[in-house]
Q: What sequence folds into this?
C-alpha cells in the first residue's frame, strides 16, 4: 500500500467513525507529555483539598468577595493584580512560542491534557488503534455495546469529577462533595457542575482535535510569532526523499532513495491526523508523537534517528544554528524584557500591597445632634478590612478637629475593641463630640488616623470626612 493509499485509508476510517484514532507510541517526548499530564491533572484535582490553617488553601470565595491563594488573600480592590497576572501569562505564551513553537499546545494546554486522558481510557476499554477502528466499523453486538457503555461510564464519571473539582475552587470542596453525595446541591452549584462536566466531555471526548483545528484561535495567529529560528516539528526532506517501502525499496536498491520507508506511522500517531511530511501545518500541535514513532522506525531499519525532529526553518535551509542564536533574537529579547518588567511590577505590587483598607462613612440620616449641654455629636461608621494574614489590632485617633472626643461601639460584634481577624472586615461606630462653641464653621474637616499595632511592617492610613454642626454666630453662639 502506498502512502497515498494509506492516508486515504486513514481518512476513510476517520470519516466512517467520525473521529481520528491516534496510534499509541512510546518515546522520550511522549514520556515527557505523560509526566506533564500527571503533574497538571494531579495539581488540578488535589489542590482544592489542601488546607491552609482553618480554610481551603485555594478558594475563590465569590459571595464573600475574597480570593484565597495559600498565604495571600485578595479582594476586589486587588483586581489590578489579576490583570497583571493575565498579561504576564499572555506575554509568556508569546515568549515560549517564539522560542519553541506550539510547545504549550503539545504539553500543557487543558484541551491536550484532558483529551490525552480520554484517549487513555478509550484504549484501555477498546484496545489498540486497529482494534478501535475494527470495533467502530463492526455491527452492533453485545461485546461492542458493553465496551461502549464502559467507556461512556468512565468518560462521564471523569467529566463529573472535573466539574465538581472546578466548582470546588469557588466553594469549599468538602461541603460541595457532601452535598453532591446526598443530592443536596443548590441550584447554581448543580448548574455549574453539570456545565463544566458537559464542557469537559464535549471538548475532550467528542470534539477532540476539532477544537485545535477549527475552534482554537491560537492556531490561526501563531505564525505571527514564528520566525526562521523558531523550533518546529519538521521532516527532513533532503534526507527522507524519495520515499520507498517494502518490495519496491528492495527492487530499486540501485536507484537513489531516501531514509523514509513510507510506513505512514507518523500519520497514524498524529492526534490531528496530518502528514508532517507535507510541511508545517497550522493543525500541528507540536506533540512530537511523529518524532518518537519515526525514531523507533529508524532504529528498526538501522538508520540514524531524527528524520523527523525539532528543528528550525534556518537549519532546514542549510544554515548553522546555535543556542545563543535561538535565544538572543530581537523578538525573543523583546518578549523577555517585557515579561521581566511585568514580573517585577507584579512582585513589587504584591509586596507593597496595603495590608488594610479603611472606609469612613458618615451617618447621612442625621447631620448632627445637639445635646442639652451644648455638645454637638456626629456619628461615623469606620470599616476596616484586614488584608494581612494575622489578627490585627488597630489604633484609631482623630485629627483636624481640636477639642473633640470620641466613643466607640461595634454594631456587628465582629470586632472586639479594634481587633480584626485575618481576611475579615470589622465595623466600628464612632460618636464624635465637641462643644458647639468650639466650631468655626458649619462643616469642618475631620481626619481619622488608623494605625496597625502588630506585624513586621505596621502601616497607617488617614481617612478624611466632614464634621457637621450648627452655623456659628458672630457673637460666638450657634443657630
A:
Amino acid at each position: 500500500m502506498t502512502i497515498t493509499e494509506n492516508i486515504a485509508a486513514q481518512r476513510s476510517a476517520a470519516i466512517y467513525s467520525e473521529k481520528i484514532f491516534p496510534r499509541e507510541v512510546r518515546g522520550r517526548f511522549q514520556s515527557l507529555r505523560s509526566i506533564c499530564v500527571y503533574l497538571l491533572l494531579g495539581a488540578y484535582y488535589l489542590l482544592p483539598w489542601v488546607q491552609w490553617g482553618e480554610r481551603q488553601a485555594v478558594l475563590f470565595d465569590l459571595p464573600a468577595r475574597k480570593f484565597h491563594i495559600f498565604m495571600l488573600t485578595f479582594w476586589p480592590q486587588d483586581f489590578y493584580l489579576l490583570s497583571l497576572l493575565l498579561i504576564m501569562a499572555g506575554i509568556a505564551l508569546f515568549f515560549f512560542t517564539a522560542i519553541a513553537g506550539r510547545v504549550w499546545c503539545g504539553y500543557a494546554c487543558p484541551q491536550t491534557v484532558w483529551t490525552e486522558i480520554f484517549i487513555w481510557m478509550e484504549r484501555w476499554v477498546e484496545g489498540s488503534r486497529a482494534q478501535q477502528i475494527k470495533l467502530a466499523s463492526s455491527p452492533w453486538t453485545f461485546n461492542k455495546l458493553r465496551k461502549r457503555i464502559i467507556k461512556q461510564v468512565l468518560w462521564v464519571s471523569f467529566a463529573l469529577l472535573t466539574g465538581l473539582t472546578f466548582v470546588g475552587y469557588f466553594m469549599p470542596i468538602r461541603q460541595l462533595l457532601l452535598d453532591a453525595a446526598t443530592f443536596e446541591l443548590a441550584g447554581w452549584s448543580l448548574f455549574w457542575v453539570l456545565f463544566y462536566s458537559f464542557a469537559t466531555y464535549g471538548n475532550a471526548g467528542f470534539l477532540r482535535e476539532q477544537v485545535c483545528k477549527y475552534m482554537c484561535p491560537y492556531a490561526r495567529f501563531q505564525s505571527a510569532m514564528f520566525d526562521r529560528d523558531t523550533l518546529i516539528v519538521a521532516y527532513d526532506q533532503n534526507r527522507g526523499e524519495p520515499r520507498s517501502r517494502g518490495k519496491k525499496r528492495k527492487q530499486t536498491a540501485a536507484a537513489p532513495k531516501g531514509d523514509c520507508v513510507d510506513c505512514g506511522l507518523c500519520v497514524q500517531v498524529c492526534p490531528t491526523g496530518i502528514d508532517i511530511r507535507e510541511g508545517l501545518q497550522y493543525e500541528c500541535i507540536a506533540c512530537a508523537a511523529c518524532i518518537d514513532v519515526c525514531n523507533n522506525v529508524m532504529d528498526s531499519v538501522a538508520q540514524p534517528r531524527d528524520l523527523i525532529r525539532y528543528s528550525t526553518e534556518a537549519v532546514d535551509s542549510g544554515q548553522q544554528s546555535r543556542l545563543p542564536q535561538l535565544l538572543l533574537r530581537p523578538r525573543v529579547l523583546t518578549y523577555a524584557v517585557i515579561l521581566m518588567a511585568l514580573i517585577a511590577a507584579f512582585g513589587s505590587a504584591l509586596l507593597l500591597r496595603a495590608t488594610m483598607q479603611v472606609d469612613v462613612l458618615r451617618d447621612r440620616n442625621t447631620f448632627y445632634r445637639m445635646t442639652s449641654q451644648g455638645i454637638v455629636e456626629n456619628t461615623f461608621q469606620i470599616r476596616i478590612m484586614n488584608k494581612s494574614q494575622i489578627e490585627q489590632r488597630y489604633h484609631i485617633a482623630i485629627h483636624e478637629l481640636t477639642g473633640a472626643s470620641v466613643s466607640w461601639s461595634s454594631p456587628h460584634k465582629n470586632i472586639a475593641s479594634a481587633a480584626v481577624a485575618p481576611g475579615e472586615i470589622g465595623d466600628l461606630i464612632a460618636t464624635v463630640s465637641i462643644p458647639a462653641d468650639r466650631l468655626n464653621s458649619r462643616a469642618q474637616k475631620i481626619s481619622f488616623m488608623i494605625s496597625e499595632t502588630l506585624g513586621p511592617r505596621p502601616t497607617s492610613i488617614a481617612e478624611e470626612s466632614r464634621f457637621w454642626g450648627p452655623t456659628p454666630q458672630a457673637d460666638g453662639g450657634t443657630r
